[in-house]
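User: Run a structure prediction on this.
Assistant: Running it now.
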Amino acid sequence: VGAKAAASLAKMQIETVGDLLMNLPMRYADLSMPKSIIEMEESDTGAVKARVVKPPRWIKRAGKMSIFSFEVSDMTEVMSITIFNMPYSFTKFKVGEEYVFEGRVRVFRNQVQMQNPNVYKPGDNGIIPYYHLTAGISQASMRKFIGNALDEAEWDVDDLSHGFMKKYGILPKEQEFFAIHSPADMSDAEAAKRSIILRELLL
């Protein structure tokens, strides 16, 4: 971690490897099982794999404000994507190309919409954690810092007995933190979250 990033992390009271590991995800994007557009309802949050069917068009471009939109389809329905204040990505989205769009859905005048979704390549999959951030730290940077912390951490021997941990579903610390930050599936993440809460209550 460079000096500038360290100063930004310090604003979040993150100064050690342990502090990084305890910066738990606030939510996850589950790319393992994208939904079809037609399944998505008002206020649903999820991932949709779809192909661009109408090219981007500018809605507004003035000073620091920019808005453009385009349409995508997965053969079940058409969805409108609106992008705010990222003019550099206007040329990224070309008709015929496929992406995974993850975000919250709105339904306006019977049209499914997403505003500023997270955009992934079709080959991206798995569970993507999202963290609380501060100025100067991106999600990608935070994931990298936490990934390095997982690799560098020295795991203490648990104070709790194996039988007690098994009885109450408390995971070994190493398994607990790998599962919360890099879960194989959502059940892993839920088990790790429950384990961390129980550990905090008992110790």
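The two ends are 30 Å apart (CA to CA).
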